[in-house]
Amino acid sequence: MDAFYASVEQLDNPSLRGKPIAVGGSENRGVVAAASYEARKFGVRSAISSIIAKKNCPDLIFVAPRFDRYKEISSQIQKIFYEYTDLVEPLSLDEAYLDVTINKKGNPSATILAQEIRQRIFDTVGLTASAGISVNKFIAKVASDYNKPNGQKTVNPDEVIAFLEQLAIRKFHGVGKVTTEKMYQLGIFTGLELKEKSLEFLEKHFGKSGKFYYNVVRGVHNSEVKSNRITKSVAAEHTFDNNLSSEIFMMEKLESIASSLEKRLKKHKIAGKTITLKIKYSDFTQQTRSKTMPYFVSNKALILQIISELLYQERMKNSVRLLGISLSNLNTEQKQFVVVQLKFDF
């Protein structure tokens, strides 16, 4: 979907259409959860400070999020997907992979199917979507950003290598900002320059990810579209309206976070052995502290006991703006993916 949260707000409130808006945060506090395309022109994007966003775009309008509404529309969109195939792998409320090799419409053209699906979405919910069509998930994902918003890009089998060779390395899915900078330092700016590096070179500089980069630039990515994604971790987080500087106040907040986490664990009958405390400081630096137990944990009291140990493990280096708890090393490999919504104060 194109700027999903912001587009929903503009859909429901016509006075916001054509204007730069940010979902989440406020003029003096918080973090942007999503930005309209009008705001993105000014460098406003998700996960940046609201203060910086407002500085970049003085006319920016902040809108409180309505996740129930986003989930409602997401559900309508996913119903459309299942009209075409049962092989749907949701990544979030606004994105999914579809395998249409064999589809319910009997149409051999994935390009035409993508056009139909995008039109169905627009006719049903009034929002635009973009699509990437290709031989595997990696290339389709990269292609989906190629003609945004409200467009699509098909990379046919005989076009894959040329497409990847000319692609800027920063546009490779899975290559983040830090990795991009490292690749620049190594003289890698395009797919072609990445392809020229040996497997040994890439593994030396990027560890296990080196093999992934070596393969994908050659069009090799064998991950199937999984209609039931395996849960690897369950988490709950909270960004605070006011920074916390006392561990006592932090424990009060962590108790509430642990309660939310416990509800999710019980709902999906999940337990885990590794408990991780996530701390984001007021200067936006981030730290995690983990402990692995010899047994599975899902009870709030036990989680809090371990979290307390992790919290007091060392002194805080600054005031804290975000706390989170996650559980991994889970007791099942058959559960469906659990969507965890990040919470903010607005």
Automatic annotation (TrEMBL):
It is found in: Cytoplasm. It catalyses: DNA(n) + a 2'-deoxyribonucleoside 5'-triphosphate = DNA(n+1) + diphosphate. InterPro entries: DNA/RNA_pol_sf, DNA_pol_Y-fam_lit_finger_sf, DNA_pol_Y-fam_little_finger, DNA_polymerase-Y, DNApol_IV, PolY_HhH_motif, Rev_trsase/Diguanyl_cyclase, UmuC. It holds the Pfam family IMS_HHH. Keywords: Cytoplasm, DNA damage, DNA repair, DNA replication, DNA-binding, DNA-directed DNA polymerase, Magnesium, Metal-binding, Mutator protein, Nucleotidyltransferase, Transferase. Monomer. HAMAP family: DNApol_IV. This is DNA polymerase IV.
